Amino acid sequence: MPIGEIETHPYLHQGQINRATKLILGSFPVYECTNQDNLIKQENRHDEGTVRFFYGSIDSKFWQFYRDIIDNTILLPPNPNLIIQSLTQRQIAISDTIISCERHDFSSLDSKLIRKTYNINGIQTLINNGVRKILCTSKGVLNDLENKIICHGNLPFGQSNNLLGHIFQNNFINVIGGNNNQIINPIAKVFVINNFQVTALAIPSPGSPQRQLAKFGFDGQDWRNYADSYFFNAFNWLNE
After folding, report:
1. How far apart are CA 149 and CA 164, in angstroms?
2. pLDDT tens digits, 60-79
3. Side-chain half-sphere of 114: how many Cα atoms within 13 Å?
4. Does 28 fall in a domain?
5. Were both Cys, which of 5, 8, 24, 196 would link to 94 (CB 3.0–4.6 Å)?
6. Which helix (H) or strand (E) holds 230?
7. DSSP state of 6
8. Does residue 91 have a pLDDT over 90?
9. Domain-embedded: residue 201
10. Residue 1 included in any domain
11. Does this model's pTM top 0.85?
12. Helix (H, G, I), strand (E, B), or coil: what is residue 34?
């Protein structure tokens, strides 16, 4: 990967679902999926089975959870056209917080992304057009949603209501048998924007949730059962 290469997001427009009331929100695609496309990316996609779409990495289990919990008719590996149809039927938009950035190494970690341009207008437009629930695919995405998209600047788009967010988080963690005292950085936020509220909920990494579960309220022995319960309740909440 060339030093100083600026990557851009190639398919944000696909996720701008008309009349969406819910939103799946990530950060930025893996290297193989961004623009400018090149031979290295094409060869990597071919060798790894990566699909040029949201959560198209072979390591991501996001669409497996979506299939198992929300729509068992979609295919794996993900077919973008079928997924867009499914999302449209359920009024779920899909987007990322970053339009363009530079990446250190080939890492997909958010911490390796610099010189970021945020998708402020795209996400604010979805909210203005009716999005009231946002499923964030990491705590980092939730943090950027708050600090870079909604509460950013001298004239912020909206404000975070810490009390409402705390109540929502406590209820969610209690339902799945977690321990709220384990959670230092919130897993949920409620934003007040004009005369309405937008609730955002973060999930652990679908690829390796066991490494993060303590930060999401887990203090037991059976991490797999807790992770399954977390994803099941989070996806069901989004789809309600």
Report:
1. 19
2. 899 999 999 999 999 888 89
3. 8
4. yes
5. 24
6. helix 223-239
7. E
8. yes
9. yes
10. no
11. yes
12. coil
